[in-house]
Structure formats: structure tokens, C-alpha cells
Automatic annotation (TrEMBL):
Belongs to the 5'-nucleotidase family. InterPro entries: 5'-Nucleotdase_C, 5'-Nucleotdase_C_sf, 5_nucleotidase/apyrase, Calcineurin-like_PHP, Metallo-depent_PP-like. GO terms for biological process: nucleotide catabolic process. The keyword DNA damage does not apply. Pfam families: 5_nucleotid_C, Metallophos. Keywords: Hydrolase, Nucleotide-binding, Signal. Residues 298-432 form the 5'-Nucleotidase C-terminal domain. Gene3D superfamilies: 3.60.21.10, 5'-Nucleotidase, C-terminal domain. Residues 6-220 form the Calcineurin-like phosphoesterase domain. This is 5'-nucleotidase. GO terms for molecular function: 5'-nucleotidase activity; nucleotide binding.
């Protein structure tokens, strides 16, 4: 007899507690409307659990407790009472380590559901830090969920993310845990992963026995599930703007049919009163400060583009204005809700760069610039998904780079210009940047942190220029 079961997924909410502007593509243009909010997500979870008579499991792929002002100021702790009311039954992690591993471990002890990771180890003991999996019964159905945390935590993220821990890819450990769950007579095996959509497709191709893979990290809006090696793979956008719903039909421990829906968390969805009250407790002390208008934008600022974005051009323009440098760089972050034409608030600035690092400068040779950009392009577009280690392409200003996506590592750049002139390998250039991912430590000399942080500098810049229009400039162009 067939058994019905429903999985609900959220991923990469980046602590967006309330609804916010979200970008939606419509033909040849972007449109913006409000979406998201934890109180609305809770309403959806409750409604679907009631509809399915409780045969529903809600899971969180991580990137949950970092990304907005309230989360950063509390080191993620303001999220705990809200998360404990959501009805989640498991999660894995990435930016959760942005406040240090010890802080996150303390937070997990206060959550009423487990953190799962088969690939996250204690540096001293080599033991797993968290449970590798959970098993839960829903009537006559036994479900096993295996967690895989973001492998890049100790590879490309700042050092404090991985103090006392190390991570593997998880692909070598996974078959053993699948076998263990099968020995425990599990009907459905779910992998909850934060490796990224391309990486997880390769993982599913390599490893047999995964029924469903809930994907995170790369902010894909999957409208039609990918199926590889009999594994159903979904991912559900970011910022809590979407909930992924996967209705399954099982017979003899096999998925024989499924139906998927990427649900937009629209403003029209009624907010859960209990969660809304918790969100208000968190946000009320900060509203006056965060809602202050600091300037205006003539165009929409968004981060939804792989090669260059208006939002990051705004950030980089502020660095160039402060330092007088010839070029500027920041990390290719995916998170950051759009800002529509009109007022720019302090809250918007914190959404752009919640890590709020100091502005830094460095001297960089033309040869180093070329090498740095080649490495970044490889980490973004590597033919082997397991070698894709970043977000989007490094955000850049003051340069124009033309490259071939399909070329092998180290051979992508066709032409590179600085301030309109072809790069000179022997020349030393003045560079401004934010975070170690903007210009990694192995590049340049005379590195200096200035006595001003990114958000303070954005406020200074808006006070000076009043209005911005940081259009796309063909900084990075695929040819």
C-alpha cells in the first residue's frame, strides 16, 4: 500500500525575519515585490501539517542566523525563540559559524531540533561535532535525514569560522550513513545539504541510495526538481521568500511518484500570531535606528547577477570615494535583499554588508591582479563542481575584465584593463577592499585596515552624494 509524505524546505533565509523586497524576473525585466517573513512561513508549515494529518517534515538547510542587523548584533541568539516556534525538525549550517564555532555550538544546545552534519569534525578529537542524522516516525513511515554542512567553512571563509573544527566534503562518509539507515529499516532517506546545487547534483550521481536531496547555499529557485541517479533534488531560493514543498508517494521503501511546488511567501499569507509577536520583540528596539533614511537611489540595487551587480557597485563606489584607489574589490555575496528606487535606509546598508568589516587598502601588482582574478573565476566556474568554492564572481570596480567561462583554470582571462588602460604586470596599483575575500592575504603588500568600517563609510558616502545611480559598467564580461 502506498504511503504519502510531505517534505518542506527553507534554505538561506539569512535571518530575514520580516517580509522585504524580492526580485522576480518577468520577460526582459526584473520586477520587485514584498515576500518572506517568518510568521508567514510558520503559517504555511502549520497549514500543510494540518492538511497532511501531521505527515510532514519541515527542514532548514542553514544560512539562517546571520545576514541582518538584529542577527549580527545578537550573534544569532535573537533568532532562537523564533526558530523554536517554527516547527523545524532538523538543520545543517554554513554562515552559522560567522560568530565563531563555540558560539554556534551554544546556540544549537538551545534549539529544540538537532543540527546535523556528517562532515564537521572537532580538530583535537577528530570526532563529529554534531549528530550525523536523525530518524523520525510518522505513523507507519520511518524517515531518516542526513546532514551535510558547507565544506567551504574552513577553506575560503574567514579564519574565525573554523576555529577548533575542520570539514570534509562528506561524499566519502555518506554511503556508510545511508547503509546504517537502511539497516535501521528506514523507509525514506533524505540528505539535508549546504554544499550548493551543482555540488549536490554531483554528490547524488556519485552516491547511491539517496531518495531526496534538499539543497542549499546557491540560492537556486528550483521550479522543476532535478532527478539524478533516482535522487530528487530541490532548492528554494533565499531570504525566506520561498518554501519548497515536495509531496511524495512511497511503496516498498521507494519513491514511486512526487509533486513539487516552489511556494512564494506572498504578503497575502496570514501571519502566525505567535511567531509575529516573537519577531516584534526582536525588531522593536531597533526599528527607529534601522528605518532612518540616509540617502536615495535612482535605480534598483540588487545582487541577483553572477558577474556584476548594482548593489555592489554602490558599495565599491563608496570605497573608491574614500580612498582614492584605482580599483576596489569585495566578496561576491549572494545574500542581500534588493533596494527599490527611492529611499535607502540604515537597514538596507546592514543587509548589504552585515559583517561590517573595516575598509582596507593594499598595493597590488598587475601580475597579482591577473592571478587573483583567474583564481576567483575558477572558484566560481570550475568544471568540477566540487572545486566551486565561492559565491558569485568577486565584485570589482575600476577594472574591465573579459573572459571565457568555458576555458580551463588559469586560462580564462582574454583582456584586463585598469581605469581604461590595459593592465601592466610590473606596475603596482592602489587597491581598496573589504574582507579577506575581497583581496586574499596571499596577494599584495602594504596591507592596511583603515579606521572606518564598511557601513560607516556607506553612511558617509550617502551624506556626501545624497543620491546614487550605480549602473552596470561591464566590469566583468563573459565573451
Amino acid at each position: 500500500m502506498a504511503k504519502d509524505f510531505t517534505l518542506l524546505q527553507i534554505n538561506d533565509t539569512h535571518s530575514y525575519l520580516e517580509n522585504h523586497q524580492e526580485l522576480f524576473w518577468d520577460g526582459d525585466r526584473a520586477e520587485y515585490r514584498k515576500a518572506g517573513g517568518y510568521a508567514r512561513i510558520r503559517s504555511l508549515i502549520k497549514e500543510i501539517k494540518a492538511e497532511t494529518n501531521g505527515r510532514t517534515m519541515a527542514l532548514d538547510n542553514g544560512d539562517t542566523i546571520h545576514g541582518t542587523y538584529q542577527a549580527v548584533k545578537s550573534k544569532g541568539r535573537s533568532m532562537i525563540p523564533i526558530l523554536n516556534k517554527m516547527g523545524f525538525e532538523g538543520m545543517t549550517a554554513h554562515w552559522e559559524f560567522g560568530y565563531g564555532s563555540e558560539n554556534f555550538m551554544e546556540i544549537t544546545e538551545e534549539l529544540n531540533y538537532p543540527m546535523l552534519a556528517i562532515n564537521l569534525y572537532d580538530e583535537e578529537s577528530n570526532n563529529l561535532v554534531f549528530d550525523p542524522y536523525l530518524i523520525k516516525k510518522y505513523g507507519d513511515l520511518k524517515v531518516g535525514v542526513i546532514g551535510v554542512a558547507a565544506t567551504i567553512i574552513d577553506k575560503v571563509m574567514p579564519d574565525w569560522f573554523s576555529e577548533g573544527i575542520y570539514l570534509t566534503l562528506g561524499n566519502e562518509e555518506l554511503p556508510n550513513y545511508i547503509a546504517e539507515l537502511k539497516e535501521k529499516d528506514v523507509d525514506l532517506i533524505v540528505v539535508l545539504s549546504h554544499l550548493g546545487f551543482p555540488q549536490e547534483i554531483k554528490l547524488a550521481e556519485e552516491v547511491d541510495g539517496i531518495d531526496v536531496l534538499l539543497s542549499g547555499h546557491t540560492h537556486n529557485r528550483v521550479h522543476k526538481p532535478a532527478v539524478f541517479n533516482d535522487t530528487i533534488i530541490i532548492q528554494s531560493g533565499c531570504h525566506g521568500s520561498f518554501v519548497g514543498r515536495l509531496d511524495l508517494k512511497l511503496e516498498n521503501k521507494k519513491v514511486v511518484d512526487f509533486k513539487h511546488q516552489l511556494i512564494t511567501v506572498e504578503e497575502s499569507i496570514k501571519e502566525d500570531r505567535e511567531v509575529k509577536a516573537e519577531v516584534e520583540k526582536v525588531m522593536k528596539p531597533h526599528r527607529k535606528k534601522l528605518e532612518e533614511v540616509l540617502g536615495f537611489t535612482e535605480i534598483a540595487l540588487n545582487r541577483n547577477m553572477v558577474l556584476e551587480s548594482t548593489m555592489d557597485n554602490f558599495l565599491l563606489d563608496s570605497l573608491l570615494d574614500l580612498t582614492g584607489a584605482e580599483m576596489a574589490f569585495s566578496n561576491g555575496w549572494r545574500y542581500g535583499a534588493p533596494i527599490i528606487p527611492g529611499p535607502i535606509t540604515r537597514n538596507d546598508l546592514w543587509n548589504i554588508i552585515p559583517v561590517n568589516p573595516p575598509v582596507s587598502t593594499v598595493k597590488l601588482s598587475g601580475k597579482e591582479l591577473w592571478e587573483m582574478m583567474e583564481v576567483n573565476l575558477e572558484r566560481t566556474f570550475a568544471a568540477d563542481p566540487y572545486q566551486q568554492m565561492g559565491g558569485y564572481v568577486k565584485r570589482s570596480a575600476g577594472i574591465n575584465l573579459y573572459f571565457k567561462i568555458e576555458n580551463p583554470a588559469g586560462e580564462r582571462i582574454q583582456k584586463l584593463f585598469v581605469q581604461g588602460k590595459e593592465v601592466e604586470f610590473d606596475r603596482v596599483y592602489d587597491v581598496a577592499f573589504v574582507t579577506s575575500q575581497g583581496v586574499r592575504a596571499e596577494y599584495g603588500k602594504e596591507r592596511e585596515k583603515l579606521d572606518i568600517n564598511a557601513i560607516e563609510n556607506l553612511e558617509r558616502y550617502l551624506k556626501k552624494v545624497k543620491k546614487v545611480e550605480p549602473k552596470l559598467r561591464n566590469t566583468i564580461v563573459a565573451v
